[in-house]
Amino acid sequence: MAITRLMRKRNADLGDKNDSKGDKEESDDEENIGDETVIQVDFEGRNPIDSDFDGIKQLLNQLFLKAHINLNDLTEHIIKQNYVGSVIKQSEADDEADEEDSDPNEVFGITTIINLSGEQKSDCIHQLRALLLKLCNSYGSEEVHSFVQDLLSNPMKPVGLFINERFVNIPPQITVPLFKSLKSEIKRAKEKRMAYDFSYIILISKLYKMELNNDKNKSKKSKKSDTSEIIWSNPEEEVIDQEAEVKFEFSVRNEADSGLVGEWNENDDEMTPMRRILVIPFSKFDSIIEKVEEAVSA
């Protein structure tokens, strides 16, 4: 499944430049800028395989941080259910053309869904359920805690954990074909009477909240909507947030670096890393895909 293109940079080997025919026939997708070469790279979605283990685990680690989740077990679970979900990889053609700069096993993202309901043998599933209950008890209202607790204990309303992780420099346009593919894979799994007939899905979303430095800034910001003070790690999740039936959030300041790219000084507004838990009716997944596609195409 071809997905999208991304601009990558690598150092140009100026000493090897010449006017040979081979150099003139370099891909039109390369452009020299100063001492760097900007390359347009094609990405594609593939079924997770064993060699993706380390890459998937790295992505899960940036989501769960220090949470008590066996990431080895969770990664193996994702690979075993590879009939649902995709990893983002550099296309094979680009891999061959750029062998010096790329690792063929590098995973740039993972989009999948995991069944949290019913009888589960994997330790990681029990840990995920326990984590969600602990978090909503600590940070959600009584109504939220009651809702999530009832949901996770009700076999008549199966719940899926929606994982949507990628590196920060991968554009949100990549999510549209991934979401559409996931939708089709879930449909096929349901037709085979597999346990993917979800009533709700839960997304753990990464975001950053701005802490304003002075009263003047606070006065200005107070006139704006709350979203003006939030940076979403995955921008498309702002759209998903609007479809959530239940949500709550918490800081992970003591567990993570900022995760933001750029230079900062003491006069800049401070960004607090957060997690927001979104509980979404699965019946809204089709409309979510449509709204995300519209948002990232604007």
TrEMBL record:
Please give the superkingdom of this protein's source: Eukaryota
> Which Pfam family is one of those matched by this entry?
BCCIP
**Listed GO CC annotations:** nucleus
| Compositionally skewed regions (Acidic residues) per UniProt | 25-34
Compositional bias annotation for Basic and acidic residues? 10-24
Q: Where is this region: Disordered?
A: 1-36
- InterPro entries (alphabetical): BCP1_family
Please state which protein family the record places this protein in. Belongs to the BCP1 family.
* Name of the protein in question: Protein BCCIP homolog
* Organism encoding this protein: Menopon gallinae
